[in-house]
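Sat 14:20. Reprocessing the chain from the morning session after the first attempt stalled halfway. Input below, unchanged.
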Amino acid sequence: MIGTTTASALAGRAGRRQVQVQQAGEHARWRKQGQRETYAAFLTAVEQVRERSYQGDVDSPHVATASRASDELNERVDAVNRTLSMVIVEGPESVARTAEELRDASCEVASRAMDILAARRDGADISQLCRDLAEEQTWLDQGITAYAKAVRTVLDQPPSA
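Finished this time. Tokens:
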């Protein structure tokens, strides 16, 4: 009788433990999916700054076009900052640090592109500004590569229970 009671208690405890392990695994997979979505949203926002800085409107001498392009760049930089906050919350530190560096690079690209817009509007020479923008875009491209590598490292780790 005692043996049966003990076996029953052990079986019940093992069953509860199995349920806990399964729930922990499901939670880890859910958490990883949230990270994946957050990391992708940030990268998408950065890519939008990058694409906008490459578009021809940056070279437009028309005030209305230049003003609209500048407003769009500012909106896209704001999106980078908003999504960076989510990356910092999701972590880990290695991804957050790389994302902050990527945010800095995207802000510099946007700033250089806006400098070109202002110079074009004022009729100033933009040749040096274009070279500066090209350098910042290279820095941004390198940041995108580093961020993607950091994200893959985190996402390639199996979910822990």
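Helices lie at 2-54, 63-90, 93-122, 127-155.
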